[in-house]
Write a structure and sequence with these properties.
Elements: H1 3-8, E1 11-15, H2 19-31, E2 36-40, H3 44-52, E3 58-59, H4 63-68, E4 72-75, H5 82-89, E5 98-101, H6 107-115, E6 124-129, E7 150-155, H7 167-177, E8 182-185, H8 188-215, H9 233-238, H10 245-254, H11 256-279, H12 282-291
Parallel strand pairs: 1-2, 1-4, 2-3, 4-5, 5-6, 7-8
Antiparallel strand pairs: 6-7
Helix pairs in contact: 8-11
Length: about 300
């Protein structure tokens, strides 16, 4: 992290103290590279827990006041809460403050800007840390959650050309690197489509498979204690179905078109594989399965 950026951006505000936000606070506190870590959450009990556990240097109950006293502001709230947070932050856009986020979808933020006629924002940089677990909430936060994690970063663009030669982009780039993350640049136009494939649809499939098994009279988990939650193929596929249902329902809704597009292709592949199984042509099945192996 450059000395210039470190000196000028010393107060960090994390809005939303769930798994991601609280883990980020703990990482920042342990790193001691910033002067003050401020936490804000809509739940006062969560804020009280954060200060009690020394996850933050201070908590601020008033959101606008917390933004006013901060240099870098990170939105770590669930998708359903982002519009309300953006309302509170809107007067600080295109100021010396720098905003970023950790949301799993970006079009909801871009839609807010469009609907509110907010244009040419130069101090909002999209971020998406590829970090997390199937657990959720501040009590499941981890001080090392972000170590060696990949963070997708992109400035807000008007077209598909990424412009990274601005100080705010470099600041956010340096911010994530300061906590041992690996930064990868991504176009904000492509983000939601890519995340549908890499994250959202896998969660969708895991939830669906888990429900099929739970609803079936033939596959009661209690009758097969060796199958789950012990290690194995089923356990691997169902692990993320334990994720926060409310959070993922909102992610699915906010990125529905991209998820549906990918699911249409996935269903077609399932139909192809189903036909091959029905044909009982082992050679064709072997060929299909070999082509399906992921790239290394």
């Amino acid at each position: 992290m450059s000395n210039k950026l470190k000196k000028s951006n010393k107060n960090i505000l994390v809005i939303g103290l769930g798994l991601i936000g609280a883990s980020l606070c703990r990482t920042l506190k342990d790193g001691k590279k910033y002067e003050k870590i401020i936490g804000h959450d809509s739940n006062e009990e969560v804020m009280d827990y954060a200060i009690k556990k020394d996850y933050v240097d201070e908590i601020e109950y008033n959101l606008k006041n917390s933004i006013q006293k901060s240099d870098i502001i990170i939105f770590c709230v669930p998708v359903k809460e982002i519009n309300k947070i953006l309302d509170s932050a809107s007067n600080f856009f295109n100021t010396e403050k720098i905003f970023t986020d950790t949301l799993s979808t970006k079009n909801i933020i871009k839609k807010y800007f469009k609907d509110n006629d907010i244009e040419n924002i130069n101090n909002f940089i999209f971020s998406h840390p590829m970090a997390g677990t199937e657990n959720y909430g501040i009590k499941n936060s981890q001080a090392d959650l972000f170590k060696n994690a990949t963070v997708l970063v992109s400035p807000l663009t008007k077209n598909k050309l990424i412009t990274t030669n601005n100080k705010n982009f470099e600041c956010i780039n340096d911010f994530w690197k300061s906590i041992d993350c690996n930064v990868s640049k991504i176009n904000d136009y492509d983000h939601d489509e890519i995340l549908a494939a890499f994250s959202h649809v896998p969660h969708f499939i895991s939830f669906s498979l888990s429900k099929i098994l739970k609803d079936s009279k033939n596959y009661n988990f209690q009758d097969f204690p060796w199958a789950y939650p012990n290690k194995g193929s089923l356990s691997d596929m169902l692990r993320i179905a334990n994720s926060d249902a409310e959070a993922w329902a909102n992610i699915f809704s906010s990125n529905s078109s991209q998820i549906q597009n990918f699911l249409d292709n996935y269903i077609l592949e399932l139909e192809k594989l189903k036909l091959l199984i029905n044909k009982k042509d082992t050679d064709e099945l072997i060929s299909y399965l070999k082509k399906s192996k992921p790239l290394k």
